[in-house]
Amino acid sequence: MKEFSHYSGDGTPVMVDISAKKATMRVAKATGFVWLQRSTLELIEKRLLPKGDLFQIAKIAGIMAAKRNAELIPMCHPLSLSYIDVAIELDYKTKGVRLNSEVRLEGKTGAEMEALTAVSIAALTVYDMCKAVDKSMVIGDIRLVEKKGGKSDSGSSGE
Asked: I need a surface site. Which of 2, 86, 132, 137 has the fewest CB within 10 A?
């Protein structure tokens, strides 16, 4: 059986030592979706939500979350991120908001947890901004769609 990377010999949790790893360019992309009522989509599109412009606020929340990922997830390393973007698209066909993030850095680890955190917090921000007008929202389909760099480079995993 393979040893667990985040446990010491005595079974206590430890952060993985990455000091011997080589820095590489890393890119990760994640996606998520928030299902909403059509009337809520129309309020978002017209920028008439009581809490303000969802596009701007959710984007900033996602960017801030990616930068603070190591504070939220105990075994993640603090990283110096080079680029973070969160894109938000209305989808009337599926009735919701599609969230996409991209994170880039040159480092010894990382990018995928930061991309997933950006999408997750952006989705929670959408929920928070719409909860006064839509009680039926569902957050879901949060997943990594691409990871490049490092030894587990997966390329595209199908968006």
From this structure: 2
In a domain, 33, yes or no: yes
In terms of pLDDT, which residue wins out, 1 or 119?
119
CA distance 81 to 79: 6
Domain of 107, CATH number, reads: 3.30.70.640
Q: How far is CA 78 from the centre of its chain?
A: 16
**Residue 17 falls inside a structural domain:** no
pTM recorded for the entire structure: 0.88
Catalytic residues: 128
* DSSP labels, 101-151: EEEEEEESS-SHHHHHHHHHHHHHHHHHHHTTT-S--EEEEEEEEEEESST
In a domain, 138, yes or no: yes
